[in-house]
Amino acid sequence: MVLLTKNSFIFLLIFFLSSVVYSNAFQLKQVASGLGIPWSMIFISNDEILFTERKGRVGVLNIQSGKFNYLTDTPEVMASGQGGLLDVAKAPEYKQGDWIYFTYSKAIQDQGATTLARAHIDGHVLKDWQDLIITDSKTDTGVHYGSRIAFDDKGHVYFSIGDRGVRSNAQDLNSHAGSILRLNLDGSTPEDNPFVGCSDVLPQIWSYGHRNPQGLVWDNENKRLWSIEHGPRGGDEINLIEEGKNYGWPTISYGKEYWGPVSVGEGTHKKGMEQPVKFYVPSIAPGSLLHYTGDAFKDWRGSLFSGALKLRHINRITLDAQGRAIEEERLFENLDERIRALLQSSEGWIYFSTDSGKIYVIKPK
């Protein structure tokens, strides 16, 4: 028989409470810890999550055991500032052995450029790495790389690029920075992109006027592309992304300058520039975006979820049938974690990662 001291009992109680948190509707359980900064996650089997770490590692986590290992032959990334190995995604009809897509910051003459690539997994090896497009976005600022990936239902891949710390980039259509790009799955440019044939616009651009979109998701039911991006001091935005549209940065913004209570640009509205579906003042600092389609939490179906880095919670937005934001809920504020990536499982459970190197799951109670 093992007798617990008072201190041992308190330690075990704290450990239990930190691992499982209950509410009336769900439970929150810690799945793994001890990772780097897990920037993105996808399921590659029912029990395995493939995750990226910003410093350049790619790992596989077994969600049953909590054990993980790292793949070999990963690419060299420019892991400085906000750059590194960023998003990982798979196409809608993915099956084992298919291409897996990545974005990362690539060093070009000592400057960083957001790059879309793809590779295969062979056991514990990442192989057949292909850079599909090294974007025209390089700067030496080390900030605002974007960068999330989404797929539509017609064989296109979208990915976001921040303004790279140079505000004017977002209105310069000869630069990929500050834009969302649309490509075919092999990296070629679709002939029906809005600016194909325009001599003064890069043809991969789908939308522009973005500051730093770190969330991008396709709503297949309503055929909508959603983005969430960082504002400066206030002015984070959720945008419904449409073909060829200008989302205003830095000409219009709901944020203020970092150096004082002064509005950015010309104000909040301008003809020919799109309004956000929702903006946040103060900033929550969004790190990801998920459109929830599961059955585990029926009240959440159709909601947009974002991980908040600065205000440390999961942000849930309820949308109406027209795609308007009608309600906001903030979950897990007491967890006090910078929440980075979000992932939905086949059961409809929600997994999320934190910058402290943990992965959690939200399950029905």
Briefly summarize what is shown.
This protein has 365 residues and is mostly beta strands. The protein contains one helix and 25 strands. The strands form six sheets. It has a five-stranded antiparallel β-sheet with strand order 1-2-25-24-23.
Q: What order do the helices and strands come in, and which of them pair?
A:
Elements: H1 6-19, E1 20-22, E2 26-32, E3 38-45, E4 48-53, E5 58-62, E6 68-70, E7 85-89, E8 100-108, E9 111-122, E10 125-134, E11 149-151, E12 156-161, E13 179-184, E14 205-208, E15 213-219, E16 224-229, E17 236-241, E18 278-280, E19 290-291, E20 304-308, E21 313-319, E22 325-331, E23 339-344, E24 350-354, E25 359-364
Could you list some keywords that capture this structure?
365 residues; mainly beta; Neuraminidase; five-stranded antiparallel β-sheet; four-stranded antiparallel β-sheet; 40% strand
Structure in words:
By secondary structure, this protein is mainly beta. The chain has one domain (35-364): Neuraminidase (6 Propeller). Helix content is 4%, strand content 40%. The protein has one helix and 25 strands. The chain has one helix at residues 6-19; strands at 20-22, 26-32, 38-45, 48-53, 58-62, 68-70, 85-89, 100-108, 111-122, 125-134, 149-151, 156-161, 179-184, 205-208, 213-219, 224-229, 236-241, 278-280, 290-291, 304-308, 313-319, 325-331, 339-344, 350-354, 359-364. The strands form six sheets. It has a five-stranded antiparallel beta sheet with strand order 1-2-25-24-23. A hairpin with a 4-residue loop joins strand 4 (48-53) and strand 5. The longest helix has 14 residues, at 6-19. It is globular. The model is unreliable at 9-18 (pLDDT under 50).
